[in-house]
């Protein structure tokens, strides 16, 4: 019945609907939480006028003025912030889309369909707009991320999403996408996460999916196969997935899903040999093929799944543990959960387990809005509930370095930024944090908001750095006392790995051989934590910044942790002098961090072979126009790959790296800085270029605020080292 009442799936529009009026959208912010609202009456609109940040994010003209042309780096930084401050929200942060991945909207829309919760009408229209705009122009399919080639994962799931949202099978975009999907072999070739969503919707059979046994959660903690030892994102996705899989829950068959069964495959649904599809993954999708070990385990567990002898009491117990873990995850994050994938899966579990009238269900529905972001191309789903703290702390440091923070005319903006950093610090450990396998959080900073509440090593580090730099700026408020900075340092000191580096959310728990059981096919390095040069550097610099303000606190430990962190940085330098960056593209990003690490102990170009090799690598990649431009292909292939055009953001990273390393020749640095200045618009802004970020090697993600924070930072650093001279006539 629920499915029958789901209106949009029965609309079957074969023409593109009329979209919403962009001037009616407003962004509401509340201690970092971002939600978009559509106003309909004139009265509402009059009471809540569109702000500059609304307009900017919607692609509407903002009330920015033409600024006097900047001739020197500090003048350019000033102009940049003169524009960028128009976008600072009233709670002190900078919003921004955090899109890129193309596998998020389908999960959300499928759960809307299964649970029968209609998608808010303006959102429905704008989701359609976004997906249509993001289809690849050549073949009408979708990739795993916005710049990627069409895959079954992207194409099958987004096709389904658009159909649920109301597009008919004869809409030209649907015909084109379906043709592409069939060319790729149809939806049977979807990777595991795609198979999961299709099966949950009832348009794919559970026998066609490799098992996701919830029993793993019942294993003793010391066994690597207990998900508590995995990377936190991975375990929290397999948690709800295990529940749905174990109970083989799928939506009842309707006319609509019957039709999807006809549309998605290249042969009649009834004729598909499901068991043979378990390991069928289209080559366009495949990034990490199964190992032999994974295949063998899948066979064994599949056999177990379908024998009558299966231990029912164990399954029941495992499901109880699963529900308990889901409850803790939901409650500890105010139903935001760690990320968008487990967020909507938990919502689905809550639907089946507690029902639609439960508080849990309602809370989940409410917090969906935090992941949706409205832009000129329509409504997207963000990779987290935003990048609030992360962006604010970079911007703060950039403004201090570029001497904007001390500028009286920006004082209000800077105090607001500090206030935001202040309220974003997590002040308590999660309830039951031991039972829910959580890292301590008291004193940590998260990536997005305090409510989401996950410690991230480098976010905590950037939080410390930004706080200290702002609070040392004359005239700014003092909001965060030394006790709270000590708490943050305490968190960091629990996080160093045996290989001396720092990972993302937790120290490495399970052994790296777990990677040979990576079931996801489309991502690399997802099973355990790993150390990263980026996270390690951020922690190292945060600790050294902290020591200058509070020299005696845990002095010996900090010294030892720092000494070891540097060993890690040196250890992971490649033969050619580069470092692989895991969280943004790619070697350029990592070089900025690694060279900063070396500089922090006085290792520079002239006295350190590590530093020299790192610089020489960067210099060898400079483009003829003076900039740097690296393609996301670097992340996939582990080989430096040039972009088609140099990029402002990567140019900023590269020149910052060279300046940190005291590269002896100013010329290449000056050319980079000039490129950043030349790309600046007359109102002070920089325009969006290629996608900046990455995760799990194969999925790209947008960091639109980087073009402001890192440009301003690089300009400021240049002026500090070489003087604020006239570079552009
Ligand atoms: C992020 C975003 C921020 C990023 C940095 C802080 C930049 C990094 O230095 C540490 C790792 C972290 C926190 C990170 C981890 C993985 C995330 C959460 C993401 C890249 C954003 C989206 C991604 C998440 C896993 C997406 C959902 C997909 C799954 C595979 C579950």
Automatic annotation (TrEMBL):
Domain Squalene cyclase N-terminal: 87-332
Name by which UniProt lists this protein: Terpene cyclase/mutase family member
Keyword Iron-sulfur: no
Lineage: Eukaryota, Fungi, Fungi incertae sedis, Mucoromycota, Mucoromycotina
CDD domains: SQCY_1
EC top class, as a word: isomerase
Entry similarity comment: Belongs to the terpene cyclase/mutase family.
Residue ranges of domain Squalene cyclase C-terminal in the record: 387-719
GO CC terms, sorted: lipid droplet
Source organism: Phycomyces blakesleeanus (strain ATCC 8743b / DSM 1359 / FGSC 10004 / NBRC 33097 / NRRL 1555)
EC number(s) given by UniProt: 5.4.99.-
Gene Ontology biological process terms in this record: ergosterol biosynthetic process; triterpenoid biosynthetic process
InterPro entries per the UniProt record, alphabetical: SQ_cyclase_C, SQ_cyclase_N, Squalene_cyclase, Terpene_synthase_CS, Terpenoid_cyclase/PrenylTrfase
Keyword Isomerase: yes
MF terms in GO: lanosterol synthase activity
Keywords, in A-Z order: Isomerase, Lipid biosynthesis, Lipid metabolism, Repeat, Steroid biosynthesis
